[in-house]
Write the structure tokens for this entry.
Amino acid sequence: QVQLVESGGGLVQAGGSLRLSCAASGRTFSSYAMGWFRQVIGKEREFVAAISWSGSNTTYAHSVKGRFTISGDNAKNTVYLQMNSLKPEDTAVYYCAAAPVGFRSYLYYSDLRDYDYWGQGTQVTVSS
């Protein structure tokens, strides 16, 4: 089992920045691809960004590409999402997720069905 705890959410004006953190505990000696997703009430959870265990591969949703950056620190069992140039449409609850990848440290996933573990979410609100 892996436990994920997100932090760093809050209220920010449009054009501002936030950095989300996701700390993992539990079975962290295994290899995991990590992802960030977001959800607005009444809408489906959507993919934001993902990173491979090795850190060498990343992918982003088109809507955030060039503004958001995902990174990880395996020594600290933490993954980050740096969000710049925030827009009101980025307002959502942001979730981090972990997917076991075994020895395939190059893998990453954009489909939420590939993820086994989820955090409780952190609210991000961008005012116009």
